[in-house]
Amino acid sequence: KVMSGGLPAAAFGGRADIMDELAPNGPVYQAGTLSGNPVAVAAGLATLRAADETVYAALNANAKRLGALFSSALTEFGVPHRIQFAGNLMSVFFTESPVRDYAAAKSTQTWRFPAFFHALLSRGVYPPPSAFEAWFVNAAMDDEVFAVIEKALPDAARAAADAEPGQ
On the chain, which terminus has fewer CB atoms closer than 10 Å, C or N? Predict the structure, then answer.
């Protein structure tokens, strides 16, 4: 959805020698419902053309602001956590250790996530449904949006703090 301005689309790529095996050059036929979806491709191009330095600055600022709000609430309730970023993509891990690989991600306190997720969701914040997914921001997030998130976070942090393994 990132490449298609929020619309569903599908794409893949690879080394030239592998891509040359695909039709019409090679013997492998590849198709998919959303492959090359012209509406999604047009939306993606429009998004890229509209995205200037102001948009990217807003994305980065919004990610940092969101991460700070999450960290503040989780710290207040004593929940071990790491807020990690890859550009303006954010991840929330319930651990005190940096998460740099699959093993580290799997060793986090994922059992805290369902309570955290549902507390946010019931308060009007739609988080990703998995402890392993990135959190996406958008450039249109404003003070009103952040106020909703900030209002929801204490209850969500409390829910994460109260969660127990096996729940």
Answer: C
